[in-house]
Design brief:
Helix 4 runs parallel beside helix 11 and helix 7 packs parallel to helix 9. The chain is mostly helical. The protein has 21 helices and 2 strands. It starts with a strand and ends with a strand.
């Protein structure tokens, strides 16, 4: 069999690629925002919200469902099941993605109007082909993740991001220079997103077709007659995938709620241009920066699922608990450090990325400062959800997400309706909803797996370390800013704050040099 990446190393690969992807994504949005302005970028935000929502229906349960079943099949040596799973998943989800893309394209105008942004029509229509491509990409991502090889996923993400930058901004710039209005310029940029997903799809198809023999059925596997009936495999796959779809769709409703409710409420007491500015500042500035560190925790969750699924299939409860606690500790370290660090330098980071829109930066700074703390609950909620999904309890996160979405919706409606709070209500509502979701997931894990996280390692020590990170970031920013331009001072300030954070983690014995060494050097272990 193939060599499998450890959870930590797999997460490291996804984290490094994720950082590059988010960086390229930010680079894509930054000049585009400077080109058309924060208000016009509201078209991009509206179209992307619809796209993500439809994509959550078409693909949300796909990689996880395939990865879980492939990993479980490998653990119990039922190799014939793997090819069956791929055929089942492809037939169901690629067809679904194609249908949603066609329907979304046909109804692009009503969708744009429903988002209170008729001008977003071009962006909504241009992004629909991407749903088909990502449906195909997700099938192959799940296959390789099931073998605990995160490299193809990382590479496809990078290819998608780079092509999006080159094609998206290139088309937008050409349209802008030709004198087209901003809604068509933004639509051209969104078309680049569809082109980028096509490039990722071509890569993943080639990677699968030309995969090594380690990913193919051996003679022993071919002669094995212990394969599971197709009907049962389909049922098992849907049992895993459908709750994930419901959970993802419900979670993405939060974004749609922001897009629909926030604009509606703001227009009730502000003029339309001011409302667009505030929403664009939140959706395309604050959330763009917020998403830069969020991938770190997501990467751990993606790498965690096949590892726990394999241990669970072998009924190795001790391995399940050990792997879960390890993932929770590392996730917490990343989440608290990112949250406190980002809060400390919010304004400086926004000024760095969006120098051409001072009004947008001024609006986005308090929004980013508020939403940054949501990284903690969002990250840990995702990890607990991954644990539940890995052991066949994927329906439980649906409950917590549904409750969180309801709380988020009500909170957003109430808070944004208050003129003195206005758009600040959206990130505040996120900080209200996600801690409740986290608590619910912790209860679910305890009830069904019988263990609780190590409170000291997961919450107390990271909290204290995060506070140290915040203080050091502020102090270093003040010190370097005294003799360097702000944009230059930001980099050594961040690096020094990270160094202080790591040293403090070692001092309080939350991590050790041996742990860091094992993550970086002990890349793979045999199946």
């Amino acid at each position: 069999m193939s060599k499998k990446q450890s959870v930590a190393y797999g997460a490291l690969i996804l984290s490094v690629s994720g950082f590059l992807v988010k960086l390229v994504g930010a680079i894509f949005k930054i000049p585009l925002t400077n080109l058309v302005g924060a208000a016009a970028m509201s078209y991009f935000t509206s179209a992307y919200s619809i796209y993500v929502f439809l994509l959550s229906i078409a693909t949300s349960g796909l990689p996880t469902g395939i990865a879980t079943m492939v990993s479980s099949s490998l653990a119990v040596e039922k190799y014939k099941n793997i090819s069956k799973i791929m055929k089942i998943a492809s037939a169901i989800f690629v067809s679904l993605g194609t249908i949603l893309a066609i329907v979304g394209f046909i109804f692009a105008m009503p969708l744009a109007e429903g988002m209170n942004s008729r001008e977003a029509y071009w962006s909504v229509a241009a992004i629909m082909p991407a749903i088909i491509c990502i449906s195909v990409v997700s099938v192959f991502k799940g296959f390789f993740q099931g073998y605990r090889n995160m490299t193809p996923t990382a590479l496809s993400n990078l290819i998608e991001a780079i092509v999006k930058l080159l094609a998206g901004y290139g088309i937008a710039l050409a349209l802008h220079n030709l004198g087209y209005p901003s809604e068509i310029v933004v639509g051209g940029a969104v078309l680049g997103v569809s082109v980028s997903t096509l490039a990722a799809m071509v890569f993943m198809i080639c990677r699968y077709v030309f995969r090594s023999k380690n990913y193919r059925i051996s003679v022993k596997g071919f002669l094995d007659d212990s394969e599971t009936p197709t009907r049962k495999l389909t049922k098992d796959f849907l049992i895993i995938s459908l709750p994930l779809i419901v959970s993802s769709v419900t979670a993405n409703l939060m974004s749609l709620v922001d897009s629909f409710v926030v604009m509606n409420r703001l227009k009730g007491y502000l003029d339309i241009e001011q409302a667009k500015l505030l929403w664009g500042s939140y959706g395309n500035m604050a959330l763009t920066i917020f998403n830069l560190p969020s991938f770190l925790i997501t990467a751990i969750g993606i790498s965690l699922i096949p590892a726990i699924a394999a241990a669970y299939a072998k009924k190795d409860q001790q391995k399940v608990v050990k792997t879960s606690n390890e993932a929770l500790k590392y996730s917490s370290i990343l989440a608290f450090g990112s949250a406190f660090g980002l809060n400390a330098v919010s304004e400086e980071v926004l000024n760095l990325f969006f120098p051409g829109d001072p009004a947008g930066v001024a609006s986005a700074t308090p929004l980013l400062q508020i939403i940054s703390f949501a990284l903690i609950a969002v990250g840990l909620t995702n990890i607990f959800s991954a644990i539940l999904q890995s052991v066949g309890k994927s329906y439980l996160p649906v409950i917590s997400v549904a409750v969180g979405a309801a709380i988020k919706t009500v909170s957003t409606l109430i808070l944004v309706s208050v003129p003195s709070i206005n758009v600040l209500g959206a990130p505040i509502a996120t900080n209200i909803a996600y801690p409740i979701m986290l608590i619910m997931n912790i209860i679910f894990v305890y009830k069904h797996l019988g263990f609780l996280p190590n409170w000291i390692d997961v919450f107390v020590k990271p909290l204290v370390s995060g506070a140290v990170c915040w203080i050091s970031a502020k102090a270093f920013m003040f010190a370097f800013d005294a003799f360097l331009p702000e944009k230059i001072a930001l980099f050594p300030a961040i690096l020094c704050a990270i160094l202080v954070y790591l040293i403090f983690l070692i001092i309080i014995k939350l991590v050790s040099f041996n742990e860091i060494k094992s993550i970086l050097l002990k890349k793979r272990k045999r199946a």
